Amino acid sequence: MLNYPITLTPDSNGTYLVGFPDFPEANSVGDDKEDALAQAVDALETALSIYFDERRPVPLPSPADAGDAVVALPALETAKVLLWNEMHARKMRKADLARMLDVHTPQVDRLFDLGHSSKIEFVEQAAKALGKTLNVSLV
């Protein structure tokens, strides 16, 4: 899982402002710390979608200091980000991956849609097509 550090800053209204050192464009606010953390996940997924739409590599999390708040990207979204970054490093387009998988391009479009519940088997198949292995662990 990718754990992105966040900043939680209380404001004068008793709410918490959320920022991401790795994503300056991602900001959010919550009524309390718990709400701020929930809103942070939404802000992070929105920022990731922007990176996908703009065909930019997604920054990996910077190290968090002890006691820092972090937002854990869910496992499926983590796999999608890592797959995306591998494609970007190889200068591949979605159409290239679709050809490698012998599927239609909209299927690959959905693979990089964070709102779509892609089957983990398809993510694994895409990783394999790139010569990679998807590893899952229970910690």
Automatic annotation (TrEMBL):
SUPFAM superfamilies (alphabetical): TTHA1013/TTHA0281-like
Source species: Duganella phyllosphaerae
Protein origin, superkingdom: Bacteria
Residue intervals of the HicB-like antitoxin of toxin-antitoxin system domain: 4-66
Name of the protein: Antitoxin HicB
